């Protein structure tokens, strides 16, 4: 079967087409979905892309979390559908209470763009199974509201239950508590992170590596992991 992965476009989405291309490169069929719809069109997985949905008014992701299609997203998450939130999409997942905690303005109060090193803390999710445990990867990061916060007791729970999916390595770019770059839910089907894997899926367009400039493709494994999860569930 060919996995069909939906990408939801919100007003202000910037990386929806990039996410669709990443899905295609991973061997799946991208399906464009609209924030005002209540139809997921029978997709097998979902991506909430990066950008500045609704201009980041109120809080980043806060209005998008109330968009009509998010009712279907929540239902799909409860049924185990793989869902990935990237940057603004991560903010939506937090605002929709599909992932815990909150995301606030970067500690230095500036937008940041850099190729960011991460450590994969949990490779037992629908979006990380193609990584090795504690593998270090490099993918682009670009955000102004990427500081992850939660209470000390909640942070302890996330650590204790293995729900920290990714951690910043070398540099904490935004002041996230405990260097948290991304989370998973308890069932491993919902994952959110601030960096952008969709910008590191093709040689010539990704981060620099020791082998060559722009040759980094660490982001591709997010999407091949989801394809494997969908195909495996259907077998």
From TrEMBL:
**Domain of life, per the record?**
Bacteria
* SMART domains linked: GATase_5 (SM01211)
The UniProt record lists the keyword Lipoprotein: no
| Active site: residue positions | 87 (nucleophile), 196, 198
| Pathway named in the protein's UniProt entry | Purine metabolism; IMP biosynthesis via de novo pathway; 5-amino-1-(5-phospho-D-ribosyl)imidazole from N(2)-formyl-N(1)-(5-phospho-D-ribosyl)glycinamide: step 1/2
Q: Which SUPFAM superfamilies match?
A: Class I glutamine amidotransferase-like
Please name the PROSITE patterns in this protein's record: GATASE_TYPE_1 (PS51273)
List the transmembrane segments: none
Q: What Enzyme Commission number does this protein have? A: 6.3.5.3, 3.5.1.2
Question: Where found, per UniProt?
Answer: Cytoplasm
Tell me what reaction this enzyme catalyses: N(2)-formyl-N(1)-(5-phospho-beta-D-ribosyl)glycinamide + L-glutamine + ATP + H2O = 2-formamido-N(1)-(5-O-phospho-beta-D-ribosyl)acetamidine + L-glutamate + ADP + phosphate + H(+); L-glutamine + H2O = L-glutamate + NH4(+)
Task: Extract the Pfam families matched here.
Answer: GATase_5 (PF13507)
Cite the InterPro entries for this sequence. Answer: Class_I_gatase-like, PRibForGlyAmidine_synth_PurQ
Keywords attached to this Swiss-Prot or TrEMBL record, sorted alphabetically, are:
ATP-binding, Cytoplasm, Glutamine amidotransferase, Hydrolase, Ligase, Nucleotide-binding, Purine biosynthesis
What does the record give as the function of this protein? Part of the phosphoribosylformylglycinamidine synthase complex involved in the purines biosynthetic pathway. Catalyzes the ATP-dependent conversion of formylglycinamide ribonucleotide (FGAR) and glutamine to yield formylglycinamidine ribonucleotide (FGAM) and glutamate. The FGAM synthase complex is composed of three subunits. PurQ produces an ammonia molecule by converting glutamine to glutamate. PurL transfers the ammonia molecule to FGAR to form FGAM in an ATP-dependent manner.
Quaternary context: Part of the FGAM synthase complex composed of 1 PurL, 1 PurQ and 2 PurS subunits.
> Per its record, how is this protein called by name?
Phosphoribosylformylglycinamidine synthase subunit PurQ
Species name: Microbacterium arthrosphaerae
């Amino acid at each position: 079967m060919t996995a069909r992965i939906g990408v939801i476009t919100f007003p202000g989405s910037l990386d929806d087409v990039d996410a669709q291309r990443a899905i295609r490169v991973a061997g799946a069929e991208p399906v464009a979905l609209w924030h005002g719809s209540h139809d997921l069109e029978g997709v097998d997985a979902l991506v909430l892309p990066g950008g500045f949905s609704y201009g980041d008014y109120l809080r980043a992701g806060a209005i998008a979390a109330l968009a009509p299609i998010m009712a279907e997203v929540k239902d799909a998450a409860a049924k185990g559908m793989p869902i990935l939130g990237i940057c603004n999409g991560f903010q939506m997942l937090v605002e929709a209470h599909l992932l815990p905690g909150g995301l606030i303005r970067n500690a230095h109060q500036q937008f940041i763009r850099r190729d960011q090193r991460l450590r994969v803390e949990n490779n037992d999710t629908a979006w990380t199974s193609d990584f090795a445990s504690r593998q270090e990867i490099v993918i682009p990061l670009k955000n102004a509201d990427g500081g992850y916060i939660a209470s000390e007791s909640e942070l302890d729970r996330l650590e204790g239950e293995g729900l920290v999916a990714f951690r910043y390595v070398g540099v904490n770019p935004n002041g996230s508590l405990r260097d948290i770059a991304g989370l998973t839910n308890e069932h491993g089907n919902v994952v959110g992170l601030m960096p952008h894997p969709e910008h590191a899926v093709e040689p010539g367009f990704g981060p620099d590596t020791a082998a060559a400039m722009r040759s980094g493709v660490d982001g591709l494994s997010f999407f091949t992991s989801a394809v494997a999860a969908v195909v495996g569930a259907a077998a």
